[in-house]
Amino acid sequence: MKKIFFNFIGLSFVTLGVLSCGKKTTVEAPQIEVTKITASDIVNVSQEADSTGYIVKVGQIAPNFNIVLTDGKEVTLDSLRGKVVMLQFTASWCGVCRKEMPFIEKDIWLKHKSNPNFALIGIDRDEPLDVVINFAKATGVTYPMGLDPNADIFAKYALRKSGITRNVLIDRDGKIVMLTRLFNDEEFAHLTQKIDELLK
Fold first, then answer.
1. pTM for the complete prediction?
2. Between 139 and which of 57, 101, 161, 171 could a Cys-Cys bridge form, CB atoms 3.0 to 4.6 Å apart?
């Protein structure tokens, strides 16, 4: 009787008996190391974020969403294909957003709002309609603002718990061409220049 021993995935030896020529032989198979992958690991891989919390990248197609604007109109991102689209993720409690929004109004919206090939949507993170309307009035912006209950739209672009303000610039083919985080003069100037280039 020959006994063959296997070390299988770090478990104890398994003995299998088989007929042989009457000699006893012990063989150890090489150990195999297996990493257990759970469903949460798969989600984490698919949502691997960059250093600023974005889970989307420049060059990829912007995730589609439906949004209800403060005037009751519904917009689907995919319906804007063929236009240059800027998404601004914001909220009334965000001090940096309040600083940035008048610049978006003056240097981007007022400059391009008459261009049929441009669209800008402010996406307010998880606040009720009356708060968003008052927020727009307080910051003096006239560009379209929409509601993002539970930050579900935001979570398509960045880790749900990561911060704002953020701007996502999308070209006519629906591809992301620029991602911004927070607000600084140099990056904002680059954003406005990029919009100008895309609209030529």
1. 0.76
2. 101
